[in-house]
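Listing S7. Sequence submitted for prediction.
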Amino acid sequence: GGGGGGGAHGLRREIASFLESNPQAKISDTPVASWIKWDSGQPVASYCRRMARGGWGGGIELAGCSLLKRVHVHVWERDRRSSGVRRISCFECPGVPRAGRTLHVLYCGG
């Protein structure tokens, strides 16, 4: 899947819709619905409606993006000791070659 337009807000809506439509999709061998329940205490539909409107996304949304767009998502943060960056999370899309497309995200705190 390529870009559908709409920028960050459009992508947020796409990911929320994907998660709501695929509650049994697996993130680390666990269904999305379980991750959402553990993280928010909410049913999938309520959580996804809220996420489609706004707020901070996290690991569930990054994993959903990986599955939806069939890309790997690597999250980085600045490493003050080395003045570089270090990878803090890695969401790999099953079935996509390791050398496949990778989206790199720089986390700057929240």
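Caption to Listing S7: primary sequence and predicted structure tokens for the chain studied. The two ends are 28 Å apart (CA to CA). Helices lie at 7-21, 32-40, 44-53, 59-69.
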